[in-house]
User: Fold this.
Amino acid sequence: MAQEDSIAKLQAQIQVFSEEREWDQFHTPKNLILAATSEMGELAEVLQWKSDEEVVAFLQTDQGRAKLSEEIADVAIYLIRLCQKTEINFLEVIQHKLNVNEKKYPIDTSKGNARKYDET
Amino acid sequence: MAQEDSIAKLQAQIQVFSEEREWDQFHTPKNLILAATSEMGELAEVLQWKSDEEVVAFLQTDQGRAKLSEEIADVAIYLIRLCQKTEINFLEVIQHKLNVNEKKYPIDTSKGNARKYDET
Amino acid sequence: MAQEDSIAKLQAQIQVFSEEREWDQFHTPKNLILAATSEMGELAEVLQWKSDEEVVAFLQTDQGRAKLSEEIADVAIYLIRLCQKTEINFLEVIQHKLNVNEKKYPIDTSKGNARKYDET
Amino acid sequence: MAQEDSIAKLQAQIQVFSEEREWDQFHTPKNLILAATSEMGELAEVLQWKSDEEVVAFLQTDQGRAKLSEEIADVAIYLIRLCQKTEINFLEVIQHKLNVNEKKYPIDTSKGNARKYDET
Assistant:
């Protein structure tokens, strides 16, 4: 199966879903970014008061994993929908950016250093 | 090719990339959510002052499409990395949430109405 | 009344509120940024599907104004709390940044142009 | 000095600043929320890779405090501008929400517990 088909399949489902409910009209790029932002907020909320140790314990529970999974999915769905509405290939642009990052962050200058490449 | 392989391939590249630079240590779930948030901010910034008409014109330029694509990719990469570090299957949880949404938003009550199902 | 007192008064109330509930322990800078992010998500959600005209109509209703007000307040409370926990003076840093912006965006080069000063 | 004047003074400066540059036209509520989101992203970025201990050390440096202060200010400026454009009283709505929170989170049920009041 071609690489794009896994995302294309999800997009086909999202398209039908949106059309059936006459929601396509609301899916402008700016609105989709606001919606992705609202879901990013819900993702942040899942872990906002937990220490790193509590996060580990939380993610060992079914409820915890389900909650985090749901919020990741919600953000991803809007990004995938944004790509669909703007005819951007989701998997291709990610692959492209990963390749760009390889060059932008040479191993020898990046090792163990979390600073962005252009930060003093 | 199995459905997971397209994302799994990207995750393999992200894993090597992170290990080569000794960045894996920074990739806790909370840190990855903060990083995804910072990239969501850059995505919002691309269109923040443009009217919907200006957005259309902008996305017809190579520079505009490249900029939007890059920021979508940056958010997606951190979500995919978060899934990898927490052993959540990115494509599966999206598929699951799309199925949940079908039930949560029945067509007859949702048609043309952008309100969330539990909003008055 | 000195300029800081209006914010200082709110901070005093937030401090008592947090101590009474033994929530002070959770208010690390990173956690407060995640919490502010979650509230920013709720703010985005209020208007995410509305056109600019619908936003105007919405904000003419008591319910609409109350909803937007609540979410603005929620983000602001976490920023003010973050300042309190890091001993940053909320009003002073805003005043300082406004002064910096005056220099960063000279009127003649900025007029009617929404681009950031260092964007091509 | 009346309580609102400290924020009103900042708003007066923001109004002049925006008019001088003919930027007022861009400051619709949705655009201002996108802009606040982009600044929230920059705020998240300041601490995203730091452990809680590294955050403490970072905030003891002048550079660290200045960076965090700047990003807090940037988010706050857009919230204050949003209030100005929608005729919402920034300080009043915060005071109101703090009062609401006192009732929403009774001390006895909230003590030491970071869960939201309606969470299981």
User: Anything to note?
Assistant: The helical segments of chain C are 5-20, 29-47, 52-58, 62-86, 90-104, 107-110.
